[in-house]
Description:
Blueprint lengths: L1 H16 L8 H38 L14 H23 L3
Amino acid sequence: MGPIISRVDEAIKPGKSIMSWTSMNLDSYTKNIYVELNNLEKVMRRVRDMHDVQLESVLASISASPLVEIPSDDVYAVDEFLDMFERETKSKCTKRGKADGAY
């Protein structure tokens, strides 16, 4: 991303120092800026699309992962539910950590 932004900066630089309203090459100057801005826009669009795809896959994975399995035929008090939730979460984190090599 840095080189592309540098090219935009380089395209704009003459306008900050040597260009004036009466310069003969204003058309080529502005065309060059538009070309570099379009290149930047294309790269930004690609980065945004890649980010969206990766983010969507991670969110889909998270949303498909149940935090706790609750049998539908049992009724739990709040304290029992919290204890069960904590045990299962710790168990899943431990299993996940061992699978990832963290432990």
